[in-house]
């Protein structure tokens, strides 16, 4: 079953994506001919996996953003999650709209016709994903929070199969489960394995109460649901909207909902009291923007089931960065988990199917 059979994916006037450069194997007059418009094997491999490379790059910047948010929550006084989201997304929204106006991208605020509902849904789902994850970072380590959110690839792949009619092979399912095992081995959450990470002297971590930890786990589950909705909507939008459209709607609705949340829950505003506060916030804005743009570009080029597998790389970056900034030393199991994740990701790249064309004439371009 193909993507065109899904009611969420329809043709519209604009196509903001480049014509994909693919290599196909065609049957012509009984002979097998390999046609390619890509120069060189290395360049062709890079082009065919560009979406995966964008996604992995996004995970690095996403892990950096998580570390920065963790630092902001440890300041005195701590910055509330809703304030971090409102300030970060508000500034970035203005930057995104300004960029689109300068570059003369059509419909910079309302988005292209035919996908506006999906854009709004992407923005709202993205807000719940970000707020849930940022909330969990107040009571969980970055590694623990990350491992819980990696239920997302499993839920997203199933949602892509049901809603977008995308294929989902048994091999992909097995590799996804193997990758999830690698994530668990790396993060080693105490509530699953009963063995906390090793923290050297001088790097104390505030101990959360069972109730706070339970709330943090609930926040991660909210992130899983939000990410699933966001990734499905991005894939359904495809190249019918510019990546900046998708990114702008995310920041717009995050700003709106975070601001409303601050008013409803009477969240006090924490004003900058040091250059560290300002520097951390600026870095959150820049790294968060890079994460959203790269992730959008990646999911526009990859199927959901394949693309989310590359997201497992975030836990690798999270473990390394948490070790550098918070002194958390990854155990031997983390090394084993890293090997499992990278091996699974490599297998996903290698099993990517190549379309086959058959025809009796040179003008027959039907592919399977």
From TrEMBL:
Record keywords: Membrane, Transmembrane, Transmembrane helix
Annotated compartments: Membrane
Protein name as catalogued: Drug/metabolite transporter
PANTHER family assigned: ACYL-MALONYL CONDENSING ENZYME-RELATED (PTHR22911), SOLUTE CARRIER FAMILY 35 MEMBER G1 (PTHR22911:SF6)
Residue intervals of the EamA domain: 50-187, 221-349
UniProt main location, coarse: membrane
Topological type in the membrane: Multi-pass membrane protein
Cited Pfam families: EamA (PF00892)
Keyword Nucleotide-binding attributed: no
GO cellular component, one term: membrane
Regions crossing the membrane: 50-69, 81-102, 114-135, 147-164, 173-194, 214-237, 249-269, 275-295, 307-326, 332-351
């Amino acid at each position: 079953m193909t993507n065109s059979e899904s009611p969420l994916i329809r043709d519209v006037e604009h196509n903001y994506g480049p014509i994909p450069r693919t290599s196909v194997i065609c049957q012509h007059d009984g002979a097998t001919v390999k046609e390619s418009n890509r120069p060189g094997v290395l360049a062709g491999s890079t082009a065919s996996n560009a979406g995966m490379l964008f996604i992995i790059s996004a995970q690095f910047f996403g892990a950096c953003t998580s570390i920065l948010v963790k630092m902001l929550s440890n300041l005195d006084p701590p910055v509330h999650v809703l304030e971090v989201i409102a300030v970060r997304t508000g500034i970035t929204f203005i930057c995104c709209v300004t960029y689109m106006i300068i570059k003369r991208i059509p419909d910079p605020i309302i988005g292209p016709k035919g996908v506006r509902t999906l854009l709004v849904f992407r923005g709202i789902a993205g807000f719940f994903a970000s707020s849930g994850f940022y909330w969990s970072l107040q009571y969980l380590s970055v590694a623990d929070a990350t491992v819980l959110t990696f239920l997302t690839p499993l839920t997203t792949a199933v949602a892509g199969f049901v809603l977008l009619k995308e294929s989902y092979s048994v091999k992909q399912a097995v590799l996804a489960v193997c990758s999830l095992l690698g994530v668990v081995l790396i993060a080693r959450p105490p509530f699953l394995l009963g063995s906390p990470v090793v923290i050297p002297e001088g790097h104390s971590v505030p101990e959360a109460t069972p109730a706070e930890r339970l709330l943090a786990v609930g926040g991660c589950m909210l992130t899983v649901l939000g990410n699933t909705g966001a990734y499905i909507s991005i894939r359904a939008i495809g190249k019918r909207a510019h990546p900046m459209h998708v990114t702008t709607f995310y920041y717009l609705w995050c700003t709106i909902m975070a601001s409303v949340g601050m008013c409803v829950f009477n969240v006090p505003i924490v004003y900058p009291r040091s250059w560290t506060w300002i520097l951390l916030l600026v870095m959150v804005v820049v790294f968060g923007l890079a994460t959203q743009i790269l992730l959008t570009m990646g999911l526009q080029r990859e199927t959901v089931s394949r693309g989310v597998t590359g997201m497992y790389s975030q836990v690798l970056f999270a473990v390394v960065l948490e070790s550098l900034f918070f002194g958390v030393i990854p155990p031997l199991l983390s090394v084993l988990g890293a090997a499992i994740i990278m091996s699974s990701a490599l297998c996903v790249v290698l099993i990517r199917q190549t379309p086959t064309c058959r025809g009796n004439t040179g003008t027959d371009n039907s592919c399977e």
